[in-house]
TrEMBL record:
Residues 34-258 form the Solute-binding protein family 3/N-terminal domain. Keywords: Signal. This is ABC transporter. Residues 34-257 form the Ionotropic glutamate receptor C-terminal domain. Belongs to the bacterial solute-binding protein 3 family. GO terms for cellular component: cell envelope; membrane. Gene3D superfamilies: Periplasmic binding protein-like II (3.40.190.10). It is found in: Cell envelope. PROSITE patterns: SBP_BACTERIAL_3. It comes from the Bacteria. Pfam families: SBP_bac_3 (PF00497).
Length: 265
């Protein structure tokens, strides 16, 4: 019995040792003094690059507040959205903060925090189609050509819910929008916060914004599987900024005014 208890105790100690060795992303960032966040800075007004080459936006400000609450510096690692999950899994950064929609497919690969915002897919259509195209269902026809950014839920929705239309994706949002402005595509499918800005920034009077979202998309921070300590920390942080007014202040800064547009690239 003594030998059995001794071996059992050794096994428990070994498991504790493994757990201690596998520190979470937030703990590692605290020790390092830097929180590294993977981000594709092309998603207005969540993350984008201004004229001085700085990455700014609503999500960036949330992350700055998070890093400040930890007493560390924030390091943004610019990464294309289509490769951002593999980059997280190979330790290029600690977490994903890139307007990432929590989908079941992605959730099989990584863990997500509680959502910090909820958006939905909307349409920017050619002005000539106003009245003809009233919803995404009207585009589900081989005669229409639709576009979005590759690797996004806009692309997923286009291929799944508007599968009969011709689809061509682009590496960034502005190119895809301009494809519609220039009459080469009939509609651009993307998140509502981006489209509400893009129709004014790129539209040149040639686009119509169908602003009724037709999907439900919670945006959340992504972390490696099993990193529950980090998820706990971030969820509690999000609750704190909702309660103390920080979230509303930052939201108003980026969503109730478009003054920041004049400082963008």
């Amino acid at each position: 019995m003594k030998k059995y208890l001794a071996s059992l105790l050794m096994g428990v100690c070994a498991l504790v040792g493994v757990g201690a060795a596998q520190a979470g992303a937030i703990d590692e960032a605290a020790k390092r003094g830097t929180l590294r966040v993977g981000m594709d800075p092309t998603y207005m007004p969540f993350e984008m690059t201004n004229k001085r080459g700085q990455i700014v936006g609503f999500e960036v400000d949330i992350l700055k507040a998070m890093a400040k609450s930890m007493g560390v510096k924030l390091e943004l690692v610019s990464t294309g959205l289509d490769g951002i999950i593999p980059a997280l899994l190979t330790d290029k950064f600690d977490m994903i903060g890139s307007g990432l929609t929590l989908t079941q497919e992605r959730n099989l690969r990584i863990n997500f925090t509680e959502p910090f915002a909820v958006v939905g897919q909307t349409l920017l259509i050619r002005k000539e189609l106003e009245g003809t195209i009233k919803s995404y269902k009207d585009l589900n026809d081989p005669k229409y050509r639709i576009t979005s950014k590759v690797g996004t839920t806009g692309e997923f929705v286009a291929k799944k819910q508007i599968a009969k239309a011709q689809y061509h994706g682009f590496d960034n949002e502005p190119e895809a929008v301009m494809d519609v402005v220039n009459g080469k595509a009939d509609a651009f499918i993307y998140d509502s916060p981006y489209n509400v800005v893009a129709v004014g920034k790129f539209g040149a009077g040639k686009l119509v914004f169908l602003d009724q979202p037709f999907t439900y998309e919670p945006l959340a921070f992504g972390l490696k599987k099993g990193d529950y300590d980090s998820i706990n920390f971030i969820n509690n942080f999000l609750k704190q900024i909702h309660e103390d007014g920080t979230y509303d202040r930052l939201h108003d800064k980026w969503f109730k005014s478009t003054d920041w547009l004049k400082d963008m690239e």
